[in-house]
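Here is one chain, start to finish.
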Amino acid sequence: MSPRFPADEANVESAIDAVQQALSIMHNGPPPFKWIDDDGKSPLACYAPFSYTPEMCKQFFVMGKLAYGAQGVKPRNRELAIVGICSVLDVPFIARSHKAIAEGLGFSQEQYETALAGRVPSDLSEEEQAAYRLGRTLTGLTGRLDDESWIELSSRLDKMELVGLMHIIGGYRWVALLEQVNGDYQKLE
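Its structure:
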């Protein structure tokens, strides 16, 4: 099947510039994952649809830079929430991309794979366990968060960290949707 979001139909240059600049800031240099095809003109996975809305792309990455910045949530909590999302949704690009980020934050391959399989990894603090559970819980949430979950999560995460993680999870649900609609999983193998 031909690509759903071919680069030759979009404002790719503008989006590529925005993504490249943002990822460099977020990762303090080149990102530890491939986000653009070898041709240098065709964004992969969630980045391909972003090429059709470069202004939206730029604004999304304003939030992304905040989330990854010094004032954002704790990096390990962020990655645990993201792998929590990946354990619920079929998003191979996000899962593969964040494995390298997680390893850079000290997570073992076993911890990452355990989390990706939907189980809380060993050797995490209570706060980290809550961040992972929050990623899984909010990804599947279709109605009001139940009181029991709220009490558990809010007792292990302070409200600023909890709300910051909610923003991260919401942003990655958006990115996950773009990856899923793009559906070009063959390029990722």
